[in-house]
Fold these 3 entries.
Entry 1:
Amino acid sequence: MAGDELRQRFETLEAEVLPLADSPALDTIRRRGRRRRWAVRAGLLSAVLAGAVVVRGAEQWATRPELGPVAPVPTTQPAPAPPTTATPTTAAPAAPTVPPTTAAAATRVELRPDGLGVAGFGTAEREAMERLERRLGRPDERGAWKGATPFGTCPGPVRAVRWGRLYVLFTSGPTRYAARGWHLFTYQVDSIQRTKVDPASSGPNPPDPPPLRGGSPRTEAGVGVGSTLADLRRAYGRRLHVSYGEPGMEYRYRVDLGAAGELSGVLTGGTPGATVFSLTAGAGCGE
Amino acid sequence: MAERDFDELYASNYGRLVVQVFAITGNLADAEDAVQEAFARASVRWRRIGGYDSPEAWVRRVALNLAVSGRRRARRLREVLSRAPALPPVPPLPADSLGLVEALKALPLPFRQVLVLHYLADLPVERVAGELGIAVGTAKSRLSRAREALARQLVDGEEEVGSGRR
C-alpha cells in the first residue's frame, strides 16, 4: 500500500471519528485537574503521616526494654553487696507505676557538665530517681556492680539505670560531689549497650555489645550521640580538645567548660564528619 | 503563557488527540478519558508546560502513557464489577475506517505509535523519533516495517471480509 493511500485512510478515519469525540467544557477539565492535584497532595500527606507512624513504631520497637542485668529498685538503703565482685545482681523488673520510656522521652533532660539539669551530680539517689522518672518515665534497664563495672572501675559500688541511650550512674563511694551515701556521680550517653559487656571478661575477642538506637539527650548547645565533630567545633570552638590514643587507641574529645566542669567522650574518627559515639560528664569511672 | 493559550490548545487539539489515542488503543472511551486527564494535568501545570516548544506533544505523550497504562484497565474492571453498561469500544464507523482500526489493533504498540504520530499527527520522522525517544534511523526503519505490517493486516482483513461475503 502506497504511503499516500495510507495517509488518505488515516485522514478519513480522523474525519469520521472527530465528530464522535465527546468534548467536555474547559471548566470541567480544569476542575478535574484541581481535584487531581488535591488528591495527589492528600495522598502525599497521608503517605508522609503513615511513614511517620511506621518510623515511630519502629523506633519504639527498637528501643523497647531489653532484659539486662537488673537489680531491685533502689531504696535509701544500699543494696546488699554480692559476695563476689564484677558480677551483676539478680534481675527484678521495676514497678510499672510510671509511663514507659521512649527514645523521645530520653531527650527530656539536658546533658550538662554538672549533671542532668533536673538532677545535678551529688543529688541523693532516691531524690534523683524521683525527678528523673517524673521526666523520663520508667527506666529500660537497671543494674548493680561492685569492683569492675561495664563502665570501668568506679569510685565504689555502682548502680546504673538506663533510659534509651542514657545511662545514669549512682555510687556510694566517695566522689568530689558527696563523701558518702548513694548519689548521682556521672552519666553516659552511649551508642552501645554497655551493660551487655561482661566486666569480668578479659578474653582477647569479647563479643561486640549490641547497639543502642533511638534519640539521644543533648547538651545545651544541641550536641549528643550522632552529632559530628564539626557540630562539636561549631558549638564549643576553642573549648573543644580532640586527642587520639589510649585507652583503646581511639579518638576522644573533651569540652572544657571551666568551673562548671567538662564534657567528654569518644568519637568514631578524627574527620569533621566523624560522629559522637559517647558523651559523659561527672566523676566518671577509670578503665 | 496565558490562560488563553491553554484554551486555544484545548480547542484546537482535543479532538485530534482523541483520534490519535483512539487509533492506538482502539477504544474511544479510553481515548477520551486519557486525553481529558492529560489536559486536566496540563491545566494545573500550565505555567510550566505553556513554555514548552510544543505543549501539544506533552499532552499527547501523557495521554498515550495513560491510555496504555493500567489505569484504563482498572477503570474497565470497575465497570465490569459495577455491571454498568459499558460503551462499545469502537464507535459505529464505515467499513474502511473500521478495517483500519482493527488492522492497527493487530500491530505491536511501537508500530502503532510510529504510524499514528506520522500519519495522524502529521509529524516528520525526526519529530516522531524525538517524541518516542528513539534514534531517527530506528524511527525510519520502524515506520517502514510498521507500514508493511499494516498493509498486510489490511489485505488480510479485506480478504476475510470478502470470503465472508461469498
Entry 2:
Amino acid sequence: MAQYTQIGKPARRVDALEKVTGKAKYLADYHLPGMLYARALRSELPHARIVRLDTAPALAIPGVRAVITNADFSDRGSYGFPVKDQYMMACEKVRHVGEAIAAVAAETPEAALAGVAAIICELEPLPAVFDPEHALDPGAPQIGPSRPDGKHPNFLDREIVHKDDPVTVLAQCPVVLDEVYATCHQEHAYLETEGALAVPTPEGGVTVYASNQSPFILQGNLANVLGLPSNLVRAIQPPVGGSFGGKDDLNYESSAQVAALALKTHRPVRMTFPREESMIASYKRDAMRMHVRLGAERDGTLRACTFEGLLDSGAYASQSVFTAWRASIHAMGAYKYDACDVEINCVYTNNGYSGAFRGFGNTEVCAAIEQAIDEVADAVAMDAIDFRLKNCLRVGDETPHGQLLTESVGLPDCLRTVRRISDWDRKRREYAGQTSNEVRRGIGVAALFHGTSLGAEGSDYAASTISVEHDYSITLTSGLTDYGTGSRTVYTMIVAEELGINPERVRMLRPDTNTALESGPTVASRSTILGGNAARVAARNLAQVLDLAAADLLGCDLHQLIRSQESYVGPSEELMPWTRVVDHAREMGLSLSAHGQWTAPKIRWDHHDGRGTPYFAYHFGAHVAEVEVDLRTGKVQVVGFWAVHDPGKVIFPQGAYGQVYGGVGQGLGYALMEQVTFANGYLQETNFDEYLIPTALDIPEIHAQFVEAEFSQGPYGAKNVAEPALVPAAPAILNAIAQATGRRIRTLPANLERVLLGHDLPREGPSRQCKRGLRIG
Amino acid sequence: MQIEFRLNGQPAAVEAPPDITLLDLLRDRLHLTGTKEGCSVGECGACSVLIDGQLYNSCLVLAPQVEGREVITIEGITAPDGGPNDLQENFIVHGAVQCGFCIPGMVLAGEALLRRKPNPTRAEIRAGLAGNLCRCTGYQHIVDAIEATARQRLSVPADALIS
C-alpha cells in the first residue's frame, strides 16, 4: 500500500480560520463606495401573459437610478443548458410565481423596494398546470412554446434504460411487487441566500461577484446576454454559504440583472435575497411519482424490474433533463436483473421550477427502489441485508445498462460493515413483533450506487494552475468552486503530497475567471476526482521542473534523488533545502509555473436503446437507520444512524466525514419533515418557520465508516462522496419506520399525519404567504 | 436616537432610528458583518449574539433594547493574542466548519452554553444548539468541538479563557 505524507492524514480546512472568526466576506458582506441596491419585481401569478409593463413610474421614485426588463438583454436574455428555455427576466409571459419581471437599482434597499412597487405590471392570468399527471392531457394548458417535433408542448424529456423483456420475466416470477412511490420537492435551504454584486469596469465590461457554483458558466451566460466579449466579463467567487446544487440558474439571473444595472448606471450594484424571496424564486429538487414492479424467485433472486417515473420539472427545464437521465440510470438500484426497463418522463407544470439538488435524480429514485427492495425481501421472508447481498453488484458483474464492472465495487463490503457496526441482526430480531401501542422501535437499511461525475451528460474535464512565488509559497487555482465542500483543502493536500512540501506553503485561491482555467460546472460530486486529478497533474508538471533543478544542483541523475521531508537528498546524502532548489531552478531559467488538465475516461450512452456505459466509476454505500415511533402522535425520532461509504479513497478525512454527516442530515429532513407545498402554484413554506430542516436535536449521533475500493484512475484511488452521502438516508429511515409500525409510507415525507393516520390531511393553502414573501400582498 | 451600550468590551454610541433591529445596527451601521442574516424571523440563529452573556437572535431584538447592556458578537470572540480562542480553534480542529455561514452563530451558541453549563453532555450540547440551523455538517463535528472545549476548560484555570 502506498505511503502518503498528506493523503488520508489529518488536515486543517484552508478557510476554517476566516470562517470561525467571522472575517470571511460573503456576498452580503460586501460594501463598495457608491454601491446601489437592486431588487426584482417578481410574478405573483403562476402562469400569465405580461400585457403591460411600464417602468417609468419607478424611475420617478426618489433614489431609484435604473430599471431593467427583458428588453435590456441580448437575445431577450435567453439562456439554459441543455434546454435553452429560460430568460434572465420573464419574456412576454411568466410561468411560475416568483419569476423575475423587472429589476430596480436604487441608493437604498428601501428605495429599490419602492421602485419595484411603483412599476406598472399588468398580468393576464392563463390557465395553469399543477398536476404533472395531467400535464400531457390533450387539452392541458400550454406552458412552453410548441415543439417542432409535434410532441405535446408540456413534454420535456424521456430517458430510458432497457435490458431484455422484463414484462415476460415478471409473468414468470412467483413473487411480484407492484407499488407506487412518490417524493416531494425539496428546498436546498442553504443558510446564505442568493446574491450577486456587479462592478462596472473602465473598459466597458463588468466584474461580477456571485454566490454561485460554476463561475465559468456564469461568465459565458453573462457574455451572451450582455452582448459583451468574454474577456470583458469577469466572474469572481466569494465564499459561498452552502449550495447543494441550488446556486446555479437563479444566481445567473441575479448576476445578469445586477450586471445590466451596473452597466446602465456605471456604479456597483448588489442584490441579496431575503429568505422568503429566496424560497419563492429559487428552484427546488424535482418531485417524482414512481411506479415500480419487481419480480423475484422464492429463494430471493431478483429477476426483473420495471420503473416508470414522472418528474415534475415545473416551469422551466433547468437541469431536469440531466436529472431525469441520472434518475433513469440509478432507478433499478445497485442490483443484477435478467431484464429491466426504466422510463423517466419529464413534464412542465407551473409548480415553481425544478433544478439540481444533491443526488440529482438518484435521491428520488433511491427512495422508491430501496423501499421496493425491502418489500420484496419481506415477501420472500429474507433478511433485508441478506437479500441485498444476494443480489447486489460485484466486480465482474454486468450492470443492467450493459456495463462490465471491472474494479472498485465496495458495495458488499459496505453492507457487511454496516450490518456489523449497527448491531443489525440483534436489533432486527428484537424489534420484530413489538406489540406496544405507544412507542416502538425499528431498524432499516438502504444501499446505493452513484455514478461518479457527469457521465454521459457532457464533456468532463478540469484544470488547475500552479506557480512558485518569490516567497517560496505556492499559488494554486482550480476552475471549480469550494462552496463548503472542502475541495480547496483537498487540492492543497494533493499538491503538497506531489511536491513533497508543507501544505502551509500552498495558497489555494477561489475561482476567478481571470486567473483560473475553465473546468466545467462544479456539480455532480466531481471536484475531488476531476479537480483533484487536475491539481495532481499540475503539481507533477511543476515537480518535474524542480526535480531537474535538484538533480542539476546535486550533480546526480533524476533517479538518484530522494526526499527527506521538504529537502532533496542526492547520492552523497547531503540535504538540499527545497527553497534552494527553487532558487536554482530560477537560476537555470526554468519556469516555475505549470498547469494541469485531466479529462475523464470516455464513456458512451445510447439514449435510443437505453444501453451503454453511463459512468466511468460508481460510488457505493449502505445506510442503517434506527427509529423510535410514537404511535400516539406519529412522531418519528431517528435514534441511531450508521453510514458506510466507498468513496474509493479518503483524501481529507475530516471533510469526508463531514460530507457524510451533512448528507445524512439532509436525507433525514427529506424523509421526515421537509415539505414543499405548491398550492395552485403558490409555495406555502416561505421561511424556516414553515419549512423545517433538521436541528441538532433531530439528527442522532452518526457512525460513519469508509470502505476504500480504490479506483485506478482517481487521484490516489478516490472517486466521490458528497452526493451519495445523502441518497440512501431517506429509504433507510422509511424502512425502519415500516419495521416499527408494520405499515409502509410510500409518499415522502413521513410526516406526523402519514405516520399516525396513514394518509394526508388536506393542505389547500392561500396565496397570501407567498405574496407577503414577495412584498406584494 | 442615540444608543449607548458596550460592544465587544468597548463602549459604543450609535445614532440610529429606533425601529431597526440589532442585526441591522451591527451589520449596516457598525459594519460588523460577522453576524449573519439567514431568515430574519428568529428561526435560524445565524444572527446570534450574546447580550449580557445570554444568547439572542439579533434579528428579533430592536436596537434600542441593548441600551446600557453588554453585547458580544463574533468579532469579540478571540484569544488574548487576537487569534481564535479555544472554542474557535476546536471548531477548526474538529472539522466543524463547512460553508461557514452558520458558524459565527454556532460559536456564540457554544459560548453561551459553556457559560451556563461548563460540563455539558452531548445531548445538552445538542439542546444548546437547537436554535441554530446548519445545513452542511449534520451538527456532529460542531458538537465534537464544543465537547472538547468543555473538557479543556475544566482542566485549566477559568481566567485564562476567553477575553
Entry 3:
Amino acid sequence: MRLAATGANGTRARAAASPSPLPRARAALLFASIVLLFAGLIGRSLYLQWIDNEFLQEQGSSRYSREIELPAHRGRIVDRYGEALAISTPVKSIWAFPAKVEATPEQLAALARLLETSPQALAKRLADAGDFIFLARQVPPEVADRIARLAIKGVNDQNEYRRFYPAGETMSHVLGFTGDRDAGQEGIELAQQEWLGGKPGSRRVIINRRGDAVEDVAAIRAPQAGRDLALAIDTRLQYLAFRELKAAVEANKAKAGGLVILDAESGEILALANWPTYNPNARNKVAREKMRNRALTDVFEPGSTMKPFAIAAALDVGKVRPDTIVQTAPGTMTIGGRTIHDAHANGALTVEQVIQKSSNVGAAKIALSLPSETMWKMLAESGFGTPPKTGFPGEVAGRLRPAKTWKPIEQATMAYGHGLSVNLVQLARAYTVFATDGELKPATLFKAGAPVAGRPVVKPETARAVRRMLEMAVQAGGTAPRAQVPGYRVGGKTGTAHKLEGRGYTNKYVSSFVGFAPVSQPRLVVAVMLDEPSAGQHYGGTVAAPVFSTVMGGALRMLGVPTDAPVGNVILPPPGAEIREET
Amino acid sequence: MVRLNLLLLAVLVGCALSLVTSRHQARKLFVELERERAATRGYETEYGQLQLEQSTWAMPARTEKIAREQLKMQMPGPGRVEIVPAGSPR
C-alpha cells in the first residue's frame, strides 16, 4: 500500500510539474485499477494458501515424498499336522503402455526371450493392444527382476501374490481357490476370507532424486498379515481316499463319486474326496461342474444305509428287541396300492437279520409300527434335513419332510432310504451315533483343539445293539462281506438306491457304503458313494464296500490303531452265494 | 561483550555443524535400514517358496510314485503281515 501511495504522490508531482497536466480523473482511475489488480493478486494467493490448497500441496509433496504400499500376505491353509495346503508367494505382473514403449531390437529380443515368446509375436501383441496391456501375469520375481534390468521405457511391473496348492487335484474341492487380488472365491478360501486375508499397510517417505526412500514422514500404517488356518484334514488319509475313490470310479465307469472319513470321537473330517476333480493350480478351462464339492453340495436318496435309523428308533422306544421276529414272507408288501419288494424273499427274520440281509419289507414293517413323530425325531436328531455346518460354503440340508405330512407308504419307504435326501457328509456324520454310544458328533472341517461333546440321540444300549447288527452285515451271511478289513472288526451298511429322475425311479443307481471300525472302540467312520456305476455291477456290496475296505484298512494302519481281530478274520462267501440288496 | 558474542557464535557454528553431521548419519542409517528391510522381504519370499517346495516334494502322491516306480516297493499282502499285540514281550 505504501508503494502504491508513493506512486500516486509521484504522479501528482509529475502532473504538477509538466506543462500539459494529465486530467486528475485519469490518474485516479489508473491508481484505482492498480490497487484493484494488487488486491486481486493478494486475494488469489490467500485463497490458494488457505482454502483451495489441496492441489498445490499434493503437487509439492509428490516432488519429494511418496506413499509406499506395504503388502500383507494371505494366511496359509495347513492340514492337521501343519503340512502346507495353500501358500501365497509374491509374483510380479509385467505390463506396458504400448504407445510409450521405446525399445531397441536387442531389448525387444531379450524381453521376448524372458517372456518365452518370439520377438515377432511380442511386437505384434504390442501393436495390436490398446492403451494398456499385461505382457505376462504372475511371473516369478527373478524373471521380473531381469526384465526390470533391461530398463525398457514403457514396460513396468507390479507386485501381486499367487496362491499355490501343493496337493493339487486331491484336495481342490475342500480348499477352493482364490481369484483376483488373492481373495477367496470358492470353498474354504471363500468361507474363511476374513481370517485368511491380510490388510495391506502403507508408509509415507521422503525420496531423493533417484527415487530411493531417505526418511519416514508421518506414522507407518503397519500391514496386517493374514492368519494361518489349520484344517482337520490329514493329507495322507486324503490322498488314500482320493486314490481309492478315483480307482473305483474308473473301474466301475461311474459318473461321479465321493468319500468321507470322519474321526468318530471328535467328528473332524479327516478326508473328503470327490470325483471328478480339477487342478486348482491350472484351472483356466475347468468346467464349473467339476468344481462342485459333491459330498456337501449335492444330495441323493441314500437307500438302505438309512435302515439302521428306523431300527434304532424302534429299539430305543422299546417297540422291538434285536431278537424280535419279523415276518417278511413273501418278500413283498402292499401299502396304499404300492408294493415294496425285497431283492429275494427271506421269510421270518429277527430284527438283527433285517439289517444283516437288508430286508426292505422287514424295515418297512418295523417303521410302520412306530408313530411317524418318533421316526421323524430320530432322523432329525441324527442330523438329516439340516445342513451339517462343517464350515463349508453352500452345503445343503437335504430333504426330510415334517412328520405330519407323511403317508404310511412314505413312512415305509423312508425306512429304507427313499423319499428323503441327504448329502454324503450328513450320512457319515449320522453314523457317529452308532460308532459312539449314541451321540451325534458335530462334523467339522477345522481342527478341533479340545475333545468335542456330542449330542445324545439314542440310549447307549441301542447304539451298541445297532453296532452289533452292522457288524453282522459285513460278515459272511450279510450284504457286504467285501467290506471286511484284515485285523479289524468293522461294521457298516450297504446302500443301492434307484436314482430318481423327473417323476419316477430309473434303472440308474447310487451305490454306497457307510461303516466304522474298529468295532470294539470305533475310531473312524468312512462313507463311500458312487453315482451311476455302469460296468456291470451296481450293488453297494460289490461296488462301494471294497473301497471302504481298502480305505478303512489303510487309514487304521496309518493312524496306528491297535488291531482288535486276528489277521485271518476275513471270510468271503463262495462266489455266487453273496447276498445282494436293492434300495 | 564482544568476547561473549564471539563465544556464542562459535557455539552456534558448532551446533549447526553437529546438526548437519547427525542429519547425514540419520540418512545413512535409514538407507541401511531400508536395505535390511528389503532383505527381510526377500527372505520372507524365499521362505514361502521353500515351504511350498517342501510341501510339494512331500506330497503322498509323489512319495508313492517314487516308492513304486523307482524303488520297486509294494504293499505286503495279508499273508505276509504279522501283528504283534501291544504289551507282548517281542
